[in-house]
Amino acid sequence: xxxxxxxxxxxxxxxxxxxxxxSNYEKGISGQDPEEFLKTIDCYVMGSRTYEHALELSKSxxxxxxxxxxxxxxxxxxxxxxxxxxxxxxxLKKLVNERIKSTYKNVWLVGGPMLAKxxxxxxxxxxxxxxxxxxxxxxxxxxxxxxxxEQALNLKDVTCYxxxxxxxxxxxxxx
Length: 175
What we know:
Blueprint: E1 2-4, E2 8-10, H1 34-39, E3 43-47, H2 48-61, E4 70-73, E5 85-88, H3 92-100, E6 107-111, H4 113-121, E7 127-133, E8 141-142, E9 153-160, E10 166-172
């Protein structure tokens, strides 16, 4: 998930211009090659609003998720724009335990925050990776808004980039 420093993952107008940063952190590293990272993902899972937003962005930037299988969790009828898109409505534990675990090793939950909260509450998440951009937005959709569950984490990694983005990776502690 990409977030502002104040925990906002989407502006009310869904614009993404805030993803561009003019910050310069001399000690940071150059960005990871996105193509190499994307090769490690076997399957994407996303919520319906994230899917609709990705479709809208794809008109200008192309489809960000390539040809990897993508499962959209929704109870609504949405347009199928690509052959690798599949829609799912129902029990998330069943989705993970009966469909995803047996087929895919590295699944990336793209979002949004409502779906991420459901996965966290149901203990279906192994890791949380959040990239914090150097901006305070002040208003919008919060990533961790009322998760309703205390969850112990173990810091796995921290990476600071030249553009001021800080990526935090946490392992979910199974207690």
